[in-house]
Every structure is written in C-alpha cells, then in structure tokens.
Design goal:
Layout (H helix, E strand, L loop, with lengths): L10 H14 L4 H8 L4 H8 L4 H14 L1
Helix pairs in contact: 2-3
Amino acid sequence: MVGVEIGTCTFHTLRHCFATRCIENGMDVKILQAILGHSTFSMTVDLYVDVMEETKREEMKKVAAAL
C-alpha cells in the first residue's frame, strides 16, 4: 500500500471535521454540543459546522419536493 501524505493536521482541524461530519450525518446538534463540551448551542454551530455544497443541494431538493 502506498502512503498518502496529508500534511500538518492539528487537533482543532480534526475537531472541526468531526463536528461537521456529525451534523452532515444527522447527529442532533444538542448532542454534539454536549460531546464537544460547549456551553451554548450557537457556539457549536458557529465554530464547527460548515455547510457543504452537496448538503445544500440535498436540502433544496427537499424544499422543491414539498412545493
């Protein structure tokens, strides 16, 4: 197997990725907030959750289907 170099990865990079993927896979944000140890819901969402392009497309499909 050939190794893949990914460069420098910090703890906060991994944390950000973890939180974003949890949301994308349907984890309740309040549960994620507890796991990450944040005092507020908005801290969790504002700091660690990115909206990915594919996620936006999927959500817009749901809106279109409802119309």
